[in-house]
Amino acid sequence: MNKKTIIILTTIAIALLLAFVFYKNSTKPIPEKPEIKNTKPAQQSQKLFLNLPYTQPVESALSNKQTLDLHLPNKKSAEAPLLVYIPGGFWSDPDQGFLLTQESIKQLTDRGIAVAHLRFRSAPDHKHPAQINDVAEALSFLVSQAGYYGYNTEKIYLVGHSSGGHLASLLVQDTQYMGRYNLLPQQLAGVVIISGIFDVTETSVISPQQGELYNKAFGPDAEIRKMASPRNHIKDQLPPMLFLSAEQDLPGFSVNARKYVDELRQAGNAQAYHHVMSRNTHLSTILLNQEDNPVLRYLLSFMNVDSGGEFFHKRLLARRLWHEPSLTTEDFWQQPSIVKPFTVDERFAQSLVRLFQGNSYMLNAWPLEQFHAIDLYEYLDKTQGDKGQYLITNNIRDEHMYLDLEKLKPYKPVIVVGLDDEKNLFKLAVFYQTRREYSWLADTQPRPLSVRPLGAFIYFLNPPPDDFIPRHLSLYSLTSKSFTRSQQDPLAWLWPLPKVLHPAFTYENGCVSCHAFKGMTAQSHHTNAMTLKPHGGFARPLVSYPPEVWKEFVFNQKAVAAQIGVVANSMREEVQQPLYDLVNEAREKQP
After folding, report:
1. 15 with 246: CB under 8 angstroms?
2. DSSP single-letter state for residue 451
3. pLDDT 10s digits, 159-171
4. Beta-carbon neighbour count of residue 48 at 10 Å?
5. Rounded to whole angstroms, how far apart are CA atoms 1 and 366?
6. Do 129 and 123 contact (CB within 8 A), yes or no?
7. Radius of gyration of the chain (CA)
8. SS3 338
9. What DSSP assignment string belongs to 58-96?
10. How many CB atoms lie within 10 A of CB 120?
């Protein structure tokens, strides 16, 4: 076992140990009848039904286990959706941190959603399948009582957190449990799994602490644990499923969720989706009362109750599409002999962060252990032959890059076409929405959601100098059609100009990577996340900008970028005046 692996496993063990200690040493045990804060007017108190037994007959010894709390919106409606919450806590009596707070529940009931908060028999006194049997019976009870309490049986959503996510997943995939009550998974409107667990077999255990928790709930029998793992019951025709992971989740949870969703989709479940939630930990995901918690926004959009904000709703729809985007890097793999594996190191990881910028938490869904790449020269020789020493690339945003292949050789350029087990790097995509298209023109139509996917990209195995490689994003979002060789240097016009201008046009600011000038043809743009068509904010030819706009662009770039809602492409002070004058002179010489 190498040193890196030992460090990783030690870190995982420590994290799980802390989670275990937190869970076992809670100083706030759950009372038999949870205290309900009266956050609503007195007339609304009748909307709370506490400790409803869902089993018949009720065993007195389990009177505080096999029960649920039902929270109804003040305005009774037969159309109200029902959210059935299955708490985590390692299949045992859950710590307070695994329960929905009254403030979180109020966020749902205020929007007309009924909420059922389940309790069930707990490990180690009651091992599997006690917990899943109780959840199935509770669901049957809720379906049968819909008319009495007032909610729509066609709008029932299961929401499971942590080990509750395991129970929700197992319930809809191993149909024996719902089948006992003549229920089908397809009767559910949807399932939301928050930081769930999908494999409880011995092979999934990565620390003694985790192994102890699994043994308490499932025992040592390998066959029982295999049949208790949702991953071993994957089938098609499941209800829509949304999987949410935390940016700072427990080790492996985000990676396992993403892999699990891939398996579901491969089985034919096109409505299975995965998101990583920014600014969240394993427990904070269910604090739905926090204003900056995106989990509530995605949950509401998924339930078609309230978009929770137009941006979140658009991003949920876009993420559905980009689980299977029309763009792909898989065609690079048609000659597998030229695709080579490489180990991910810190420098490579930073090359990914460049594209994701403030959204780098999304990378948590990949273990970042290995990337796959093709030698750039070998690829060009096989696809284009020896057609010159200059390479021109253009990505899906029509950002161009101009490279001298001879000068690149010492740095061993490769085309990255895979990451860990993923062969289509276009699935790794960032979504954003600008404030406006241009700083000086009024918008004429609503701005759609834009996408910035990773795609194939050029990486250098040997670190090049800082003043050699473009700092902008034209290296990324490449397809197999992005490469063209040339006998002529496309930047020949640039080299006679003052040297201070060279970096502004090329690696430092990339003027000609985005804008047309002196025969260059780039016209970069934003890309509609839903249609993949160019939209708005086109980088116009440099000489076409009105003089006053060009002046602001050069000398006040940060303010211009802030108005549009993009990252500033500021240039060094000594570059500003020469560049400003050069473009003005070119504009005046136009016929």
Report:
1. no
2. E
3. 999 999 999 999 9
4. 16
5. 21
6. no
7. 28
8. helix
9. PPGGGTTTSEEEEE--SS--TT--EEEEE--STTSSPPG
10. 27
Cα separation, 23 vs 89, whole angstroms: 7
Determine the residue type at 443. Answer: D
Q: Tens of pLDDT along 574-587?
A: 999 999 999 999 99
Residue of 362, 265, 279, 360 lying closest to 321 (CA atoms): 265
CA distances to 19, 294, 448, 489, 517 from 568, in Å: 41, 26, 21, 29, 21
Global model pTM greater than 0.70: yes
Q: Is 248 exposed, middle or buried (0-12, 13-18, 19+ CB in 10 A)?
A: middle
Strands (E), 365-496: 370-375, 390-394, 400-404, 413-419, 429-432, 450-453, 457-460, 483-486
How far is the C-alpha of 505 from the C-alpha of 518, rounded, in Å?
11
Q: How far is CA 584 from the centre of its chain?
A: 44
Do residues 44 and 74 lie in contact, with contact meaning Cβ atoms separated by under 8 Å?
yes
Q: Where are the beta strands (DSSP E) in 352-395?
A: 370-375, 390-394
Tokens linked to 248: 């700072």
Residue 104's pLDDT band (cuts 50, 70, 90): very high
Q: Do the beta carbons of residue 390 and residue 402 sit within 8 Å?
A: yes
Give kind and range of the element (H or E) at residue 108.
Answer: helix 102-109
**Mean pLDDT of all residues in 173-188:** 96
Which sequence spans correspond to the domains of the chain? Answer: 3-32+45-322, 330-588
Smallest Cα–Cα separation from 193: which of 95, 112, 299, 89?
299
Strand 457-460's sheet: what is its strand order?
339-343, 370-375, 413-419, 457-460
* pLDDT score of 307: 64
Residue 483 in tokens: 């490469």
pLDDT digits (tens, 9 = 90+) for 435-494: 999 999 888 788 899 999 999 999 999 999 877 778 788 999 999 999 999 999 999 999
Q: Which fold has domain 3-32+45-322?
A: Rossmann fold (3.40.50)
pLDDT of residue 57: 78
What is residue 308's predicted lDDT score, i.e. its pLDDT? 66
pLDDT of 42 over the 60 cut: no
Q: Among the ranges 3-12, 200-209, 250-259, which has the highest mean pLDDT value?
A: 250-259
Q: Are 159 and 172 in contact (CB under 8 A)?
A: no
Residue 409: pLDDT above 70?
A: yes
Q: Is 481 exposed, middle or buried (0-12, 13-18, 19+ CB in 10 A)?
A: exposed
DSSP class of 439: S
Tokens of 347: 């420098």
Percentage of residues of the chain with pLDDT beyond 70: 91
Whole-angstrom distance, CA of residue 214 vs CA of residue 200: 7
User: Residues 130, 133, 137, CA angle at the centre, nearest 5°?
Assistant: 135
Instruction: Locate the DSSP E strands across 249-358.
Output: 272-281, 339-343
